[in-house]
Design brief:
- α6 crosses α7.
- This protein has 301 residues and is of the alpha+beta class.
- The longest helix has 51 residues, at 2-52.
- The protein has helices at 2-52, 72-114, 119-145, 159-176, 195-212, 240-249, 263-274; strands spanning 155-158, 180-185, 190-193, 218-223, 228-232, 277-281, 288-293.
- A five-stranded mixed sheet has the order 2-4-5-7-6, covered by helices on one side. A two-stranded antiparallel ribbon has the order 1-3.
- The protein starts with a helix and ends in an 8-residue tail after the last strand.
- The protein has seven helices and seven strands.
Length: 301
């Protein structure tokens, strides 16, 4: 009995002498593990932040001089992927520009041949040739805007002035269609880009809005607030899912119509993307489309 009690007392003493230091050490060990693992994952977090901050067109290699030795194979693989994607995009841009240039010559010849036909016979064909010529011009602008190293030089573009210019250009079309086209400004910003490409994208949105708006309706071009420009129409409008289908497939909301926006919406979306922007639907209380840019230039003095 006494011996058993003595053994129990000794076991209890040894157990307490072990548990007390362990209970004190566990938080310290947990903190050390958290600190070591956190510091070990810092290069991965830094790499993830670098990739997240990159623009969609930036295919430059990732700097691996600050990367730990264990991460360098992964960085090298990512750089190889960026090089392959960059070459593929360059081939796509070159093909688009080459195809568009090659189509300009036969279109010009066709337009000259149409001038020899009687006016009433040639009018519908001339309209289709003109629409195709405008589409080719858009493709050329798209190829230039997607090529930061090309000859086209990006300049500061005032969205307010851009909106006024496009409204002035398309006002005769609106009057001819029996519709109203007006302009509003709400503190628009400036962005850096290709003015002609942006004007072409905005004209496509206005053209689409005029088609969607019934006779007697109104289309409003609104620049701002901030780095965005919207085209509000008097039609039924598009939801976000429908817009994504139109951008991806180049289809029209009015499938039975001739000459509608068609591929133009998809091209306008690509031009917006090349300028770090996005083509999207407007707020729920307004029907229309807008291009919202992620970056703007400082205001002029």
């Amino acid at each position: 009995g006494d011996a058993q009690a003595m053994r129990d007392h000794l076991v209890q003493g040894v157990t307490l002498s072990l548990l007390v230091p362990m209970s004190l050490m566990l938080p310290v060990l947990a903190g050390l593990i958290w600190l070591i693992v956190g510091r070990g994952l810092t290069p991965l977090d830094r790499l993830g932040a670098t990739l997240s901050a990159r623009a969609a067109r930036d295919m430059s290699p990732i700097d691996d001089t600050r990367a730990p030795r264990e991460l360098r194979p992964m960085v090298a693989a990512l750089n190889g992927l960026l090089r392959r994607v960059g070459r593929a995009r360059e081939r796509e841009r070159n093909f688009t520009a080459f195809a568009a240039h090659e189509l300009k010559t036969p279109l010009s010849v066709l337009a000259l041949e149409l001038d020899r036909l009687p006016r009433e016979d040639a009018a519908p064909l001339k309209a289709q040739v003109q629409a195709l010529s405008e589409l080719i011009d858009q493709l050329l602008l798209l190829a230039r805007s997607n090529n930061p190293g090309g000859q086209a030089r990006q300049v500061p573009v005032d969205l307010d002035a851009l909106g006024q210019r496009v409204v002035a250009d398309m006002a005769p079309r609106a009057i001819h269609d029996g519709k109203s086209l007006s302009y509003e400004t709400a503190g628009a910003a400036r962005i850096c880009g290709l003015e002609e490409a942006l004007a072409s994208a905005l004209r496509t949105l206005v053209d689409n809005a005029l088609r969607e708006t019934p006779a007697g309706g109104e289309v409003v071009v609104r620049a701002g607030p901030g780095p965005q420009i919207a085209v509000l129409d008097g039609g039924a409008g598009l939801d976000a899912a429908a817009l994504e289908r139109f951008k991806a497939r180049g289809v029209r909301a009015d499938q039975g119509a001739t000459g509608g926006a068609g591929l133009g919406l998809a091209i306008a979306d690509r031009i917006a993307e090349a300028h770090e922007g996005e083509l999207e639907t407007c707020r729920p209380e307004e029907t229309g489309l807008r291009i919202r840019f992620t970056r703007s230039l400082p205001p002029q003095d």
